[in-house]
Amino acid sequence: MEIRHFRSIHFRILTALVLLVLAGTLVSAPKSPFTPKDKAFYLSERDISYIRPGLVVKVLSASIAADGTVTARIRFADPKDVPLDRAGITTPGPIGASVLIAYIPKGETQYVAYTTRTQTSPITGVSAVQAGTDSGGVWTQVADGEYTYRFATKLPANYDKTVTHTVGVYANRNLTEFDLGIALDDTAYHFVPDGSSQPAPRDVVKTATCQKCHVDYFAFHGTGGRSSMETCVLCHTPQTVDPDTGNTLDMVTMTHKIHMGADLPSVLAGGQYMIIGNRQAEHDYSEVGFPTDQRNCTVCHEEGKGAKQEKNFLSRPTRAGCGSCHDNVDFAAGTGHLPMNDDKNCATCHPADSGKEYDLSIAGAHTVPFKSKQLTGIDWKILDVSDAAPGKKPVLQFSIADKTGKPLTPKDFGRLTAVLAGPTSDYTMKFGTATTSGYVSEDMLVNATGSNGTYTYTFTNAIPANAKGSFSISLEGRRVEIIKGPGNKDLSVQYGTKNAVSYFTVDGTPVVPRRTVVTIEKCQSCHDSIRLHGENRVDAIEHCVVCHNPVETDVSRRPAAEAPSQSVDFRQMIHNIHGGHEIQSNFGTENYVIYGYGGSLNNFSHIRYPGRLSNCDSCHVNNSHMPLTTAETRANVSNPRGWRTNAGPTAAACLSCHKSVAAASHTMANTSSLGESCGACHGSNGDFSVQKVHATPSTPVVR
Length: 703
Description:
single chain; alpha+beta; 20% helix; globular
């Protein structure tokens, strides 16, 4: 009896312990490293447990022997820190890894690699020594997922043991047999060999800053694994030159010139900026357009993001840095600048920031006109909308002032316009005799009445008699001010401000603002500030969609000989613009051209998007990229130049990137008198959901 009682108690204790362990496991289970934009997200738990997708590489230690032999201890793991077999035998997916070592000479700011290679150009016959990875080293496994790598390259006997040394590793894990692509990662390990000081690696721009535009696509040189600034700067130094073109591959010069691209003085003069890479691949950057004003240095040289040398661009000006954008300057010959043989005196004439604009200081010389502190600014508000009923002419009350609160008058503006539009579901209503659809724009410069910064304007166009639901009124306009520019000379600056938008009901139903598909913050991640149509439309997507609606085209500005017209519907236009070069390359379509004000021809087919086009979340919010699965009604989209000239809202969005006849036919086959059935297969729970088919096989670690 006592034995049975003891066993019963023992069993209950064991059961309780097991439950506690399980509960702890459930509570502390690590969060999945995958999101809906990763293909691995859609794997079963069994497949996840077996494959363990992803790759994280880490250097645990590095040492230098008396004879100059370098040994690094390196760990390969999955995103949950479970060890991986480099050979791909005990865990799926073989791992390829390349290792290098570099140092920063005393008094310098850039690396010099010990591991180099000699590259000879088949074009010029010139040879160049380039920073590269070690060749012929020995890997030895020392634990699960952990290996030592003994470099074949030995450090010279007189190497400086007191300066920062860095071991860089970039790696890839081949999971293509599971349709998961090739996982990438890289890492850098910093140390001072004699331990006399803390390492001070080059740290000017963070990878996360690059990923604002390049998002999850910041990986270069194919599938090698180079995906961080920390590793890139180990090879992209003044030490490395392209022997085919003679161009330096130094990160400072190369990055500035790539981002300047089409606006480089040398390119504007008819030249070309090209780098010829591995296997003689040609990389022509002469058409690259930077998505904001190039003088806006802090878009890349971002402050407050953790880079220890974030102010180098201000405090340490160099001929290489300045000459990379101003490439019509020859410092040695004294062309465009006083002769300079070194960088010692650059900061003497060009201090970091004098507090003045348009002077010789680095900050002042790069003043962006619309950001000038000399501008008095615009502060406007929509105060009230009355008589907003079908058949009536709405009355708008608004205020206008400068940024200090000083009242402005309409005469202070070069343009001041009110835009009436509706309904907010899609902006397709026709207003009287207006030539536009979905909206009507009226000039307020003359007919607005009022004083002391508060004005009233009565529209000449009435709200249509059959109008229902919610409408909007927006303000758009611009001012011109004279400020002191370079050389203290007068500079005329035309600028606008964020469009004011107000929503109201015309039939007493609840006010429904325009749905939010993307946010301006997403746009500003790359563009910093969206300023279009002569500073009339600024940082307000909710205003942009008023004109760029489903039924508007460029018919009023396109020459008759260039008919039919091009849709300017926002979803089609934005996808086509950002897809530019890639869409044309994939589908061999005609140039994507929109005719704008004054008959201007705007060809966007050369645009190269800096991220992965299929990553819809880069721009979209609230799952707005998913097809409709409800009875919500939205307007069809007019596209006179498309395979489908009148497509449903979902089809129009998809066909803006997927431009094949097959894709167009597919959308037609799945549209009936009841509407589109896209959501049945491509909805959130569909076998071919938009998220799932757009997911990337494998992405580098986002830092």
